[in-house]
Automatic annotation (TrEMBL):
Compartmental location: Cell membrane
Species of provenance: Mesobacillus zeae
Gene field: chrA
Family affiliation: Belongs to the chromate ion transporter (CHR) (TC 2.A.51) family.
PANTHER family xref list: CHROMATE ION TRANSPORTER (EUROFUNG)
Keywords (A to Z) from UniProt: Cell membrane, Membrane, Transmembrane, Transmembrane helix
The keyword Membrane belongs to this UniProt entry's keyword annotation: yes
The protein's name: Chromate efflux transporter
Classification via NCBIfam families: 2A51
Gene Ontology MF: a single term: chromate transmembrane transporter activity
Tree of life domain: Bacteria
Transmembrane domains' residue ranges: 80-105, 117-135, 147-179, 199-218, 230-249, 294-316, 328-349, 361-385
GO CC annotation terms, alphabetical: plasma membrane
């Protein structure tokens, strides 16, 4: 049932994103699976093609792809405010948990905790479910299936910051050249309540901040401005998701703001909480300058994502209807399936499935999710509990 008012719609966005923010363990690939279950299958805010196109757009853009997808869904549902509400709901639990958790466990090892191992196995089940579902829709022909496999191979063998964006760019060109348009629901309404002028303003603001902030920071003695510049550039220039931003942040923060040991202490905490890995910035900001530092670093690292998604969506809804863009999107969607498949193996399977008991427990979780149709948050709880009991 649709909410009767705009405020009701915003509350609905907040409720859905907050639930995902509390239960979405496993990193960006798993988040895409969680989002698909919640927004496409359960709430039906988008259909499969619309969701895949939105994910494809976010893969093109620098920044945290899963957080951008969540912002984009919120914007499609409720405009810029809806995107902001969606961002708050999905990110706030991770920010709060990581800030407090990092303060409590700093210097303690958590890598061998059973419940954390169980959550990694949940991620394996969720991503496998997403790969199979999206593969059936977007990599089911000889050409698209081959492109998905090629994308997976290239992503696994080419370990570089540019690998993912290069694979997607190649897939777009290849799709435009060799794939055929087939009847689908690509022309279904994809209304975004954001005007083109607003989109241009947001893209211009992104460019201005990216250029001016380093200049201002170089001539400023304000720790807040310098910190905001460091985290803004890290969020604006990274392709490939949360794990790739870690070396960028390390170059910006160590040793100028923090020592290496304090930096690494937060990395373990970042793996233990749900939500986007980019909230590692919240830990760093807290360690550097307390609550004010946490607020500055969190806002700075996510600002580029919000500006880019809000700026491109008004034009994306038009571009996706063009025949050449449809073919390019078909190629990108196939590549996204391959990238998810690669992520399923590395880092998810390689970091979690080491013995027969691991595989068995992950298989049980997959059956509960795919065939018993249990909500993902229930599977998360069962995975954590089972991991604590059996591992």
């Amino acid at each position: 049932m649709k909410p009767r008012s705009y405020s009701g719609k915003l509350l609905e966005i907040l409720s859905a994103s907050l639930k995902l923010g509390l239960t979405s363990f496993g990193g960006p690939a798993a988040h895409i699976g969680y989002f698909r279950e919640e927004y496409v299958h359960r709430r039906k805010w988008l259909n499969e093609k619309e969701y895949a196109d939105l994910v494809a757009l976010c893969q093109f853009l620098p920044g945290p792809a899963s957080s951008q997808a969540g912002m984009g869904i919120g914007m499609v549902r409720g405009g810029l405010i809806g995107g902001l509400v969606s961002f708050i709901g999905f990110t706030l639990p991770s920010v709060v948990a990581l800030t407090l958790f990092a303060m409590l466990i700093q210097g303690m090892g958590i890598g061998n905790e059973g419940w954390l191992h169980g959550l990694k196995l949940v991620a394996a089940a969720v991503v496998l479910h997403a790969v199979l579902g999206m593969g059936k829709s977007f990599a089911s022909t000889k050409a698209s299936g081959s492109m998905a496999a090629a994308a997976a191979v290239a992503t696994l063998l080419w370990q570089s910051n540019l690998a993912q964006v290069s694979v997607i760019a190649c897939a777009a060109v290849t799709g435009m050249l060799i794939l055929k348009n087939e009847p689908d629901d690509a022309d279904s309404p994809f209304h975004v309540p954001i005007g083109k002028r607003t989109g241009l303003f947001l893209l211009s603001l992104f460019a201005v901040l990216l250029i001016l902030l380093p200049l201002i920071a170089n001539n400023s003695t304000s720790a807040g401005i310098i910190l905001y510049d460091s985290f803004f550039r890290s969020g604006a220039l990274v392709f490939g998701g949360g794990h790739v931003v870690l070396p960028l942040l390390e170059r910006e923060i160590v040793p100028g703001f923090l020592d290496h040991e304090t930096f690494l202490a937060g990395y373990g905490a970042a793996q233990a909480v749900p939500g986007p890995l980019f909230t590692f910035a919240s830990y760093l900001g807290m360690a550097i300058a307390g609550w004010k530092g946490m607020l500055v670093s969190t806002l700075a690292i996510f600002t580029p994502a919000f500006l880019l998604v809000g700026g491109t969506l008004p034009f994306w809804s038009i571009l996706r209807k063009k025949e050449s863009v449809k073919r390019a999107l078909a190629g990108v969607n196939a590549a996204v399936v391959g990238i998810l498949l690669a992520a399923l193996y590395d880092p998810i399977i390689t970091s979690s499935v080491h013995q027969n008991s691991d595989f068995s427990f992950a298989a049980i979780l997959f059956v509960l999710l795919a065939f018993w149709k249990l909500p993902p948050w229930v599977v998360v709880i069962l995975g954590a509990a089972g991991g604590q009991l059996f591992f």
